Prior knowledge:
12 helices; alpha+beta; binds flavin-adenine dinucleotide; 5-stranded antiparallel sheet; 4-stranded antiparallel sheet; 14 strands
Amino acid sequence: xxxxxxxxxxxxxxxxxxxxxxxxxxxxxxxxxxxxxxxxxxxxxxxxxxxxxxxxxxxxxxxxxxxxxxxxxxxxxxxxxxxxxxxxxxxxxxxxxxxxxxxxxxxxxxxxxxxxxxxxxxxxxxxxxxxxxxxxxxxxxxxxxxxxxxxxxxxxxxxxxxxxxxxxxxxxxxxxxxxxxxxxxxxxxxxxxxxxxxxxxxxxxxxxxxxxxxxxxxxxxxxxxxxxxxxxxxxxxxxxxxxxxxxxxxxxxxxxxxxxxxx
Length: 263
Ligand SMILES: Cc1cc2nc3c(=O)[nH]c(=O)nc-3n(C[C@H](O)[C@H](O)[C@H](O)COP(=O)(O)OP(=O)(O)OC[C@H]3O[C@@H](n4cnc5c(N)ncnc54)[C@H](O)[C@@H]3O)c2cc1C
């Protein structure tokens, strides 16, 4: 074991001040604690967000679903207002990991971690959400910057995420059966600005697929998606799936998402 100090502040301002002195936030601990056990992370100070006032909760209006950073996956999945406004988002949250992960894991932790196979980043990017921090608002298109990398500055605290309500959306995940992370997950949304397609699990980080978006903006049909050639050369290849297989999954999952949205 190595030494670290532990703080559990009651306000976001106190949490941010501690992080400014080098502390690392602890949310649900579902990614951070395993990393610490494996010595992949060795923070000198833990800043537990679980007692910070006002950092959890959900607000739904006709235009947007705003989810505070410490809201657990299980609470998003079970929220009737989220289920009504953006059913794909509630379903995505309900399909993350297992019961324990969903009971502890949080939206803010998932986004700050930006695991290449995480589900939430695809919804944030696919819906064109905005990430709200203690310092600014960041557009989804600017937030995800590579493998486990985001636009967050050191000590910057995610406080909430605002998801615009789409006309329709669907998330199709092909699970890696052991971890239940996405081997490939595709989030398709018909937004006021057109179709957005975000892919997780296939590359170094979540990404939008310009070819699929262009095809689906022309003709929102599974056939249109099927005509798009998915380049495999920059996709992940590992013991679970080759890059070519992941490319095929992107195509098939997109076609299925479109079929689901067409009812
Ligand atoms: C077995 C297993 C299966 C899983 N399956 C899936 C899956 O299918 N899909 C999926 O999407 N995820 C999956 N996960 C990951 C899960 O969703 C985690 O909850 C998530 O990655 C991290 O959230 P957390 O709240 O636990 O964050 P933590 O582990 O507490 O923190 C993660 C990182 O985020 C930082 N952080 C936390 N909160 C904030 C904040 N508000 N502002 C800034 N930085 C912050 C922390 O400092 C840390 O660096 C799985 C995890 C496990 C263990």
